[in-house]
Specification:
Blueprint: H1 7-16, H2 23-36, H3 43-57, H4 72-85, H5 91-104
Helix pairs in contact: 2-3, 2-4, 2-5, 3-4
Length: 106
């Protein structure tokens, strides 16, 4: 299941986001990506996370990203998903996510 959202497409999307003011979005995406690979996270949460990350990298969007406010649908979906699965986010998850961001230069 977790391999359906391609890492390369996801991180490529993060690299093209505007660099100013979107640090929390990048952080949220990497945390969700880490949860997707965590064996302790239940299947229902992984399905929700995979669908959210797939939507983020999908070229067809409810609000196209190039329009003003085009990231609002992505932000809302990420925030809602993180709120739903936040019980599975540990300090270790956050630290691994920070390390992954540094590794990827995000």
């Amino acid at each position: 299941m977790s391999h359906r959202v391609r890492d390369s497409g996801l991180f490529r999307k993060l690299r093209v986001l505007p660099k100013r003011g979107l640090g929390r979005i990048v952080e949220t995406v990497v945390i969700l990506w880490m949860l997707l690979r965590d064996d302790a996270v239940p299947r229902w949460a992984k399905v929700l996370i995979a669908a959210t990350l797939a939507y983020l990298i999908c070229p067809f969007d409810a609000v196209p990203d190039f329009l003003p406010g085009g990231y609002l649908d992505d932000i809302a979906l990420l925030a809602g998903t993180l709120a739903k699965v936040s019980g599975f986010v540990t300090d270790e998850t956050r630290e691994r996510a920070r390390a992954k961001r540094r590794e990827l230069g995000l």
